[in-house]
Amino acid sequence: LGKAGAVILAHENVRVRMSSEQFMAAFDRTVPASPPAALPVVTFTEGLALHLNGDTMRVVHVSHAHTDGDALVFFEQANVLHMGDTYFNGLYPFIDIDSGGSIDGMIAAVAQGVQLANAETIVVPGHGPLSDRAGLAAYGEMLTGFRNRIADLKASGKSLEEVIAAKPTGEFDAALGGAFIKPEQLVGFIYRSL
Q: The pTM is what?
């Protein structure tokens, strides 16, 4: 998009990460640095507002969620909230621990999205079908339940392998665990981030 003249904007951590080679331990994969034309040319730390085509777009940084560079984008007049990869609808999320992500940040990002939305808001996830405020809130409740179960098991001295064997995500595995992220991977992300 940068080569085509698009102005790319993102949190400053996104530019830093894209500027250098990154190793994704979750997938045992090295991602090369992005070419200069792909890098954000406008960066922010907390957020910003864009006023375009009669709408105001509020861009809000959410700390240590999917990564350390996530942002929610709320189109105020259109009443559309883009959650980015802080919301995976219909599948388990990828929490990129090696890029600054955490379960607590994911939960906080979802809570912030729920606060921004109302009953008529169209919620756009990073992955999966369109949703709404109720669907986003249910996703947040699910993540909170997983976090609390895994935290309790970890605090009781259970190893990661023992926590995986306890199936703390079990009631959702059939519906959500067959896609990109498997149940044991999600449990590992949460365990590592606590």
A: 0.95
